[in-house]
Amino acid sequence: MLGDTIAAVSTPRGKGGVALLRVSGDRAIEISEKVFCAKNKKSLADLPARQAIYGSILAPDESGAFVPVDDGIAVVFRAPASFTGEDTVELTCHGGILLTEKILAALFAAGAKPAMAGEFTRRAFLNGKLGLSAAEALGLMLDAKTDTQLTLAHTGMSGKLEAQMENIYASLRRLLASVYAKIDYPDEDLADLSESELLAEIEATRASLESLLSTYTTGRSIAEGIATVICGRPNAGKSSLYNRLVGRDAAIVTEVEGTTRDVLSETVPFGKVTLRLFDTAGLHESDDPVERIGIDRAKKTLDEAELVFALFDGTKQPDEDDFKLTESLSGRKEATIALVTKCDLWSGEDETLAFCKKHFEKVLSISTESGEGLAELEELVETLFVDGSIDLRKDPILTSARQYAAVLGAKEAAARAKDALLSGISVELVCSDLEKAMESLSELDGRSVSEDVVSEIFSHFCVGK
Ligand code: GDP
Predict the structure, then answer these.
(1) Could you give the count of Cα atoms lying within 13 Å of 140 in the half-sphere of its Cβ?
(2) C-alpha distances in Å from residue 458, one per residue of 118, 122, 185
(3) Same domain, yes or no, for 356 and 236?
(4) Ligand 1 geometric centre to CA of 248 (Å)
(5) 236 CB under 6 A from ligand 1?
(6) Are residues 122 and 225 both part of a single domain?
(7) What is the pTM of this model?
(8) Quick check: is 464 in a domain?
(9) Closest residue (by CA) to atom 1 of ligand 1?
(10) Domain end (from 385, 410, 434)
(11) 241 alpha carbon to ligand 1 midpoint, in Å?
(12) Which of 283, 300, 280, 266 shows the shortest CA–CA distance to 229?
């Protein structure tokens, strides 16, 4: 509950140099006072904000009396100038597992309640300290596995997206005020925008929303990852490529056909982007019922892929399985890259390479043995999914489906408002569409968003964040 004072260990559980406990809420200082005694005997209540003080950390003994268990540092943050926007005390102790648990238990005994996962950040959001998109960026920062994810997270936390939204919001407000004036006083010239200015501003708003939407492919490819399926006939080298990209022997590699039966999946960094990689069973006709299930699953995974690595064995001539795969991929709109494998074993104008060049736009020769072609593959995937004109450090970028849906809703409403104005049907319709655009945008930063959405976002955080 928002009114409770909560406490948690904010550093990971384990042995370390130091551990940090956080207490937040109306009673944070009073509760921490029972657990911390400054060496100079000063009370935490009298301590200036954001000043570190050295002292004893106390915890209850068998009789329940609070006795010193460690020496450490306390820092007091006073509302609203704290991460959560509430009174907060941070206690730093030595990083022992039992010691940290004891101090946390002492805080509970003194009146604090255990914090839920992400509750500190959730309070920061509810107290207006950070928008929902910035909270999502913070989540990305904690989970980041690549440098680009870190950059994107840092940009997101700096509020670039919120600032851009504020501008669009302001222009929608101005447009609405003008349209309302036209509705309420049709005969007087009260609106501060003429009809053509109105049209131009609605179009400018629609265009900024559209350009924001175009950042999503880049943002999602970096943050969430591209659903990428490795497919091809048995023994083409699928599991070898999967293992090479995953960086360990996750899939079994043998010369025996039909080894990979189920779909294997892992999320891996790949240059600037992240791949949600799927290794699938070899696509061919099989009488084995178990392998057939694997092949059906492979086909289903393929249908849902955003990027396909279609593998062709460069040491063999294209066969019926290759023809079928080529045909099944021919109508795909999503990115497909044909990879002619095992190029350490062949050279020059290979027949399979020629076949692939004839049927696919993007073709690379690779070897998982020598690593040849893999850097080119990384570069090609980046050019397909990362818009080079976007400055990841400065530009507002959409990174989650939730953000995309909010901006899309706003763009569609702005487009309808423009059509309504152009067709001259009704000014009321323009108004209602502009209001819908504002409504949709207010979901982006969390101004108006359902409790379920908020819970879903914060449930991914750890306890203590
Ligand atoms: P899958 O059935 O498509 O998953 O193919 P595997 O990855 O299991 O590979 C089949 C065989 O080809 C194994 O013996 C691998 O060691 C071999 N192989 C795969 N990729 C390469 C490669 O790039 N170079 C060489 N020389 N052998 C490879």
Answers:
(1) 29
(2) 5, 6, 46
(3) yes
(4) 15
(5) yes
(6) no
(7) 0.81
(8) no
(9) 235
(10) 385
(11) 8
(12) 280
CA distance 352 to 242: 21
Give the residue, by CA position, lying nearest to ligand 1 atom 19. Answer: 237
Residues 247 and 354 in one domain: yes
Instruction: Say how many domains are in the chain.
Output: 2
CA angle 407, 410, 412 (to 5 degrees): 110
Choose one of 126, 152, 167: the last residue of a domain. Answer: 126
Q: Whose CA is nearest to atom 2 of ligand 1?
A: 235
Residues 225 and 367 in one domain: yes
- In tens digits, the chain (465 residues) has pLDDT values of 567 999 999 999 889 999 999 999 999 999 999 999 999 999 999 999 999 999 999 999 999 999 999 999 999 999 999 999 999 999 999 999 999 999 999 999 999 999 998 899 999 999 989 888 888 999 899 989 999 999 999 999 988 888 898 899 888 988 888 888 777 666 655 556 677 888 899 999 999 999 999 999 999 999 999 999 999 998 999 999 999 999 877 666 666 665 666 678 899 999 999 999 998 876 666 667 666 676 677 777 778 899 999 999 999 999 998 999 999 898 888 899 999 999 999 887 788 999 999 999 999 999 999 999 999 999 999 999 999 999 999 999 999 998 999 999 999 999 999 998 888 777 788 889 999 999 998 888 776 666 776 777 677 777 777
What is the domain-level CATH number for residue 55?
3.30.1360.120
Residue 200 domain-assigned?
no
Neighbours of 53 (CB within 10 A): 17
Is the domain of 247 the same as that of 379?
Answer: yes
Within a domain: 32: yes
CA distance 114 to 463: 9
- CATH number, domain at 306? 3.40.50.300
Residue 41 lies in a domain: yes
Residues 249 and 370 in one domain: yes
Which atom of ligand 1 lies closest to the CA of 255?
14
**Atom 17 of ligand 1, nearest CA residue:** 237
Containing structural domain, residue 36:
6-126
Contact indicator for 117, 49 with CB cutoff of 8 Å: no
Is 365 touching ligand 1 by the criterion CB < 6 Å? Answer: no
Phi, psi of 190 (to 5 degrees): -90, -25
Same domain assignment for residues 100 and 233: no
Write phi, then psi, for 370 (nearest 5 degrees): -95, -15
